[in-house]
Amino acid sequence: MAKIGIFYGSTSGITEEIATTIREKLGEEECDLYSMEDDFDEYGQLLDYDYLLLGCSTWGAGDVQNDWRDPLFEMELEKPDFSGKTIALFGAGDQVDHGTEFVSALGKMYSHFKTLGATLVGEFPNEGYTFEYSSALMDDKFVGLPIDEINQSDKTEERIDQWVESIRPIFLEN
């Protein structure tokens, strides 16, 4: 088992592409990659790792992607202990057509795992984005890496590089 578990939910394939790119940049030997739809059995898999990268796109009125709904609901009921776990979030959103809830699923994931005792890292500056509202924005920074592949695909690689370099010391040098 690798040191880092990357778990993602992806409906359109964008979050999957982001997860794969992050894994390549951190080192494939360091990261196990799981699709919440295809490879995920139960939330206990998350507890197998001390370091987690969780990817989720935003749907509807700021909701998490479908593959995350049941595991998060089960965690709400059973309240597993994520103390000692370090989590960084990433996700896809559309700041033009869905600018009233841009990557808000990351805000929900942040609050959820914080409540369960996890340490959340990997904030990202909000410069260069244009949106109306996001629950993923705290203290003028995003709680994780927001990617808008629809409107700003030309910035995706640079943003992933910047974010990976910011989390690398936490995830690989501890």
Describe the secondary-structure layout.
Layout: E1 4-9, H1 14-26, E2 31-35, H2 44-47, E3 51-56, E4 58-59, E5 63-64, H3 66-78, E6 86-92, H4 104-115, E7 119-121, E8 124-125, E9 137-138, E10 141-142, E11 145-147, H5 156-172
Parallel strand pairs: 1-2, 1-3, 3-6, 6-7, 6-11
Antiparallel strand pairs: 4-5, 8-10, 9-10
Helix pairs in contact: 1-5
Q: Care to describe what's here?
A:
This protein is α/β, with parallel strands linked by helices and 174 residues long. It is built from 5 helices and 11 strands. Helix 1 crosses helix 5. The chain is globular, with a radius of gyration of 15 Å. The model has no long low-confidence stretch (mean pLDDT 93).
Please tally the β strands and state the result.
Answer: 11
Mean pLDDT: 93
Based on CA atoms alone, the radius of gyration comes out at 15 Å
Low-confidence stretches: none
Q: What percent of residues adopt helix (DSSP H or I)?
A: 25-40%
Order of H and E elements:
EHEHEEEHEHEEEEEH
**Largest β-sheet summary:** 6 strands, parallel
Number of H/I helices:
5
| C-alpha termini separation | 17 Å
Question: Which percent range describes the beta-strand content?
Answer: 15-25%
Structural class: alpha/beta
Shape: globular
List keywords for this structure.
5 helices; alpha/beta; globular; 11 strands
Brief summary:
The protein has helices at 14-26, 44-47, 66-78, 104-115, 156-172; strands at 4-9, 31-35, 51-56, 58-59, 63-64, 86-92, 119-121, 124-125, 137-138, 141-142, 145-147. The protein has five helices and eleven strands.
